[in-house]
């Protein structure tokens, strides 16, 4: 497990702003352990990221092949039957005597684990010819053979998910129970109450004593398999986690990111990037989502464009993609080259915690300063700043944004800044392509979004797109208002 610094520092705020919370809602683990894993997601080490991505890729190939659908269906059914025995195993490892309920749960886990082990072995054996890379990952999914501890809990070898203290555990127990049955039969024939029979009471007392001995003996025998049981829990959880990640990748059409170390990635390059939550919302309305390509080099990359031109979505989706990659997920893009960073800063408006005017600016500039301190520490970070100084007047705002660009451009972090101020000096500058050519100038407000081309194109800063005036014309705003606005622009 690795650590990563996030801005905002509260993980739930960061995940909500990036859309990670939506992604987590789409994940469907089958086991209690899988649910716990995804509830407490943590960034992985570089080695673990590679492992999760490689294993997800293999299981995704299996999921996409109809040949193996029956195997997957049966494996997922077994995973749904898994009981979390972590607490029981802890008690067992500590030398406690387990009760019948705990042994029942343990037996259930062992039966399901044995079924999973056989089915996984069969799946991997059959899939190895068409998916040869499965051989290199097989060991990570290999559940240990638990037939011996299962034999302890199933002395009759019936392999059914029930447990009681069988007669087979102790011959004396068998004899006592036989005597009790004989007495009970005799009492029933006499229509008498056997509960007050002194011999029955004595036999019952002895039966309880022997059952306690048996429980202790079983617990001590099972304790020797604690390590194998712990390994089985880990393997079952890992299978559930990777299968859930593969399912997510398949359902959302995610791709495997190409991650590089700190010193091996000079630029972040993402093609066909999309935001799963926004895409889903648009599809519900019968609209299409336009994927976007973005390149972010060390220093500052600037995106300029009018308000409502999709700049903020780009920013948040880049944060989402980097975050998902560090968690070992496939990402919402056609292709991506990403660094392994130690910090992600997303400075953007939080509509669920609204501030206005100088209060909003104060909160924003504090986060920017925090991100700048991280950058000055020579830490590799991805820094994403959305419309800095948006609530200030244009003169101060432009001066502040230019200062921010200059400061972050001197660091070795990957910084993406989006702004609607046009007079910002930056070497690497893009703009949103903007409104498509349109003949109809009598459209409704809801149609404007459909006219936008969200592609990012290089921008030298010499020309200023007049998107607001075009929107006025498209919406058939009063001619005198449009004329006066154009006249004012010409005077400038």
TrEMBL record:
In terms of InterPro entries, this protein maps to: DNA_mismatch_repair_MutS_C, DNA_mismatch_repair_MutS_sf, MutS, P-loop_NTPase
DNA mismatch repair proteins mutS family domain ranges (all copies): 298-490
Q: Which Gene3D superfamilies match?
A: P-loop containing nucleotide triphosphate hydrolases
UniProt keywords (A-Z) are:
ATP-binding, DNA-binding, Nucleotide-binding
From the record, give the transmembrane residue ranges: none
Per the database entry, which stretches of residues form a coiled coil?
none
User: Which GO MF terms are attached to this record?
Assistant: ATP binding; ATP-dependent DNA damage sensor activity; mismatched DNA binding
Q: Which GO terms describe its biological process?
A: mismatch repair
Please give the Pfam families that the UniProt record associates with this protein. MutS_V
Q: Which superkingdom, per the lineage? A: Bacteria
In Swiss-Prot or TrEMBL terms, this protein is called MutS domain V
Q: Which organism is it from?
A: Fervidobacterium gondwanense DSM 13020
Lineage of the source organism? Answer: Bacteria, Thermotogati, Thermotogota, Thermotogae, Thermotogales
């Amino acid at each position: 497990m690795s650590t990563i610094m996030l801005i905002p520092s509260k993980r739930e705020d960061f995940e909500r702003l990036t859309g990670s919370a939506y992604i987590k809602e789409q994940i469907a683990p089958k086991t209690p352990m899988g649910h716990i894993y995804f509830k407490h997601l943590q960034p992985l080490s570089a080695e673990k990221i590679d492992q999760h991505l490689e294993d997800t890729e293999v299981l995704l190939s299996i999921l996409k092949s109809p040949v193996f659908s029956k195997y997957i269906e049966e494996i997922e059914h077994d995973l749904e039957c898994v009981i979390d025995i972590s607490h029981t195993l802890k008690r067992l490892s500590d030398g406690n005597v387990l009760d019948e309920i705990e042994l029942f749960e343990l037996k259930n886990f062992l039966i399901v684990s044995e079924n999973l082990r056989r089915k996984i072995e069969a799946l991997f054996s059959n899939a190895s010819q068409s998916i040869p890379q499965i051989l290199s990952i097989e060991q990570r999914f290999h559940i240990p053979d638990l037939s011996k501890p299962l034999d302890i809990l199933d002395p009759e070898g019936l392999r059914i998910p029930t447990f009681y203290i069988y007669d087979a555990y102790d011959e004396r127990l068998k004899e006592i129970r036989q005597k009790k049955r004989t007495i009970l039969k005799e009492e029933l024939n006499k229509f008498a109450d056997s509960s007050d029979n002194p011999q029955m009471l004595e036999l019952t007392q002895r039966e309880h004593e022997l059952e306690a001995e048996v429980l202790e003996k079983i617990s001590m025998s099972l304790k020797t398999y604690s390590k194998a049981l712990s390994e089985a829990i880990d393997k079952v959880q890992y299978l559930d986690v990777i299968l859930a990640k593969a399912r997510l990748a398949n359902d959302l059409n995610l791709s495997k990111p190409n991650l590089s170390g700190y010193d091996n990635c000079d630029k972040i390059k993402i093609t066909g990037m999309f935001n799963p939550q926004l895409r889903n919302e648009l599809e519900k309305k019968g609209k299409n989502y336009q994927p976007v390509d973005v390149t972010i080099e060390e220093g500052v990359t600037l995106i300029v464009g009018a308000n409502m031109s999709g700049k903020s979505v780009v920013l948040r989706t880049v944060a989402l993609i980097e975050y998902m990659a560090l968690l070992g997920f496939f990402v919402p893009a056609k292709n991506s080259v990403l660094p392994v960073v130690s910090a992600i800063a997303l400075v953007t408006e939080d509509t669920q915690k609204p501030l206005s005017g100088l209060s909003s600016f104060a909160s924003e500039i504090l986060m920017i300063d925090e991100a700048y301190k991280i950058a000055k520490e020579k830490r590799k970070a991805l820094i994403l700043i959305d419309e800095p100084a948006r609530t200030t007047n244009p003169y101060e705002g432009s001066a502040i944004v230019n200062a921010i660009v200059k400061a972050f451009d001197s660091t070795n972090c990957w910084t993406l800044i989006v702004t609607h101020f046009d007079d910002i000096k930056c070497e690497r500058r893009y703009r949103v392509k903007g409104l498509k050519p349109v003949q109809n100038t009598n459209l409704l407000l809801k149609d404007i979004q459909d006219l936008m081309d969200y592609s990012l194109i290089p921008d030298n800063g010499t020309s200023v797109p007049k998107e607001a005036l075009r929107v006025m014309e498209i919406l058939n705003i009063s001619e005198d208002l449009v004329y006066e606005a154009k006249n004012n622009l010409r005077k400038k």
